[in-house]
Amino acid sequence: xxxxxxxxxxxxxxxxxxxxxxxxxxxxxxxxxxxxxxxxxxxxxxxxxxxxxxxxxxxxxxxxxxxxxxxxxxxxxxxxxxxxxxxxxxxxxxxxxxxxxxxxxxxxxxxxxxxxxxxxxxxxxxxxxxxxxxxxxxxxxxxxxxxxxxxxxxxxxxxxxxxxxxxxxxxxxxxxxxxxxxxxxxxxxxxxxxxxxxxxxxxxxxxxxxxxxxxxxxxxxxxxxxxxxxxxxxxxxxxxxxxxxxxxxxxxxxxxxxxxxxxxxxxxxxxxxxxxxxxxxxxxxxxxxxxxxxxxxxxxxxxxxxxxxxxxxxxxxxxxxxxxxxxxxxxxxxxxxxxxxxxxxxxxxxxxxxxxxxxxxxxxxxxxxxxxxxxxxxxxxxxxxxxxxxxxxxxx
Length: 396
Known about the structure:
Elements: H1 2-23, H2 30-43, H3 50-53, H4 58-73, H5 78-82, H6 85-109, H7 112-122, H8 126-138, H9 147-181, H10 188-202, H11 216-236, H12 243-256, H13 264-267, H14 271-284, H15 291-319, H16 327-335, H17 343-355, H18 359-395
Helix pairs in contact: 1-2, 2-9, 4-11, 4-12, 4-14, 6-7, 6-15, 6-16, 6-18, 7-8, 7-9, 7-15, 7-18, 8-9, 8-18, 9-15, 9-16, 9-17, 9-18, 10-18, 11-12, 15-16, 16-18, 17-18
């Protein structure tokens, strides 16, 4: 009963988040509502171990993350992936903007060690927060141990709705373009939709077995093989390139050569199960702090978050036009540093689904926005934030 009750609570929290998002047409993102519910739950009656009790352990999450990133690769092509270098540049330079403002102005307002402890989680996800927490413990700076995780929690609460608003504006801008171009057979919009419609029809798989053998487990096994290969390569290269990034790239290649189907895990009917488990694990990090801890450091957190987001805004505002993006899209790419995958995927698909009037329009919006958000998130959270955290640990 305990395990089933824990699982049910998590599913209800996720359900409420999705319903609120649907009711508000993505004005209020689902992950924001679910994060609020988890926070209130942990601060009141919810057990701290509710997520692992529901079977979402670190082992499950390790598997889910790798499989889902390979899945993301099956939704792209190599040409599209390489075209996103502009999104990578904007996201990384947005992080530079954050570092400049927080380290300069922030260090004038607060203790130097406070700034050093708080900035890495601001430029990345939970990995950077946990790295800084462990570093603070090792250095014996116990007064700041709660700061990195608290920063992660607070900036996510601000980052989710802000990014959703920006993506919505970008989506509405793109829908106007699509509706103008949809009747022109030579337009970019029509070509994108046609490519989406025919991708599965054109795809020839390397392994063409009789239909009776093409079961969901056949798809999952192949996705797992690619994920395993990607992680093995990551170990061989001593994670010079983050294993998560390798999973995405190998997923793209496996799809291009016909080893994996388009949208493989959805065809195997396990995509949502893995995604919900990964989200549950991320929300479980909200149990690491309390209202009392937040109350003592709320001023530092809010000021540094505002400085960090201002740095991202200035960088994206300056770079948007030279890089051929709208300011909303550029700013959203920079903001992926606040959360990364899977939040960038969920926020984007929610907005595209609620704005679009039909499947073709949704396919166009997704193709124009999702690759930028995914690649931007990997550049910041999976790569830059870990490097920054490693450097800042030495500064402590």
